[in-house]
Write a structure and sequence with these properties.
The chain is mostly helical and about 90 residues long. It contains four helices and three strands, in the order H-E-H-H-E-E-H.
């Protein structure tokens, strides 16, 4: 498996998401204080890489609806993501 490299903003978003239950877009904004349009870009990047999943499943998160979506860590990558954040 390849080594996961994350930016500081990506790590902040991942830390804001509860590993067991996930969080809504609104909760992530409140915890990270990242502007909504930038947060949507980060969430889309993490989803495209397979690190995050949305409930219900969507291909692309958009600015108008992201606050209501529920975001969860992909369990397949949970250990690797934790390790990548420890290394940073």
């Amino acid at each position: 498996m390849k080594k996961i490299k994350l930016t500081g903003r990506e790590m902040a978003v991942l830390r804001a998401i509860d590993y067991a239950n996930g969080n809504t877009g609104t909760e992530i904004v409140e915890r990270t204080h990242v502007e909504a349009d930038e947060l949507v870009d980060i969430l889309n990047g993490l989803c495209a890489a397979g690190y995050l999943e949305t409930v219900p499943m969507v291909e692309q998160v958009d600015l108008a609806d992201f606050a209501a979506w529920h975001f969860e860590l992909n369990p397949s990558y949970a250990q690797e993501l934790k390790e990548a954040m420890r290394r940073a």
